[in-house]
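Deliverable D4.2, example record:
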Amino acid sequence: MPEADQREDAVPAERPTILATSMGFNRARDPWRPSPLFRYAFDLAGRPSRPKLCFLTTGTGDRQSSIDSFYAAFADNSVDTSHLSLFAQPNVPDVAAHLRGQDVIWVDRGSLANLLAVWRTHALDKVLRACWQNGVVLGGESAGSLCWHVAGTTDSFGEVRPFTDGLGFLPYSNAVYYRERLELFQQCIATGVLPDGYATDAGAGLHYEGTDLIAAIADRKGAGAYRVTHPASR
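Output generated by the structure prediction step:
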């Protein structure tokens, strides 16, 4: 890691860590209100005194209003915030070095299909895998949850449908906002279209270390996480 990216209090996560969720910000507030999930992520990253948090909203086409709302959400917190834009060109001179220097990388909601295509064009899939393997905590909401898995369901093309070309850091399928999408997810797993996987209601998340599910977490009452398997594997 370049010397400029190091900090005296930087302690990477002990194992490769992913937080795959259906939560992140209360967007009904102005400014957005961050979920307690972020403090959980900073704790996993070693509790730095001023955590470095990078926001990726590639799935929205790097929508400026989302970027502005992200910065406003942390304006009164001791968090060193940044963002990575790829439209129309990267906003930082060395994308890999910038991401390696983070404690937490948070991926916003949006189009999963477009996000994956743009990331692969910029070789961000490889950069993010290296960050994950080196202790940067990866996380995200909706598309930012689905992307880390090998497969799942997405509404990127209109109606919700299965996908099987995720990054594959996690060898499971994934569904977000599960209460609205459970029938398709269950059917796809039952028929072998998708591998066994995990799903989250709005307000819930999955904490993985390596490829092991460590915990289910929530920021509101009644939000659940679920393991969904093929009947033959039960």
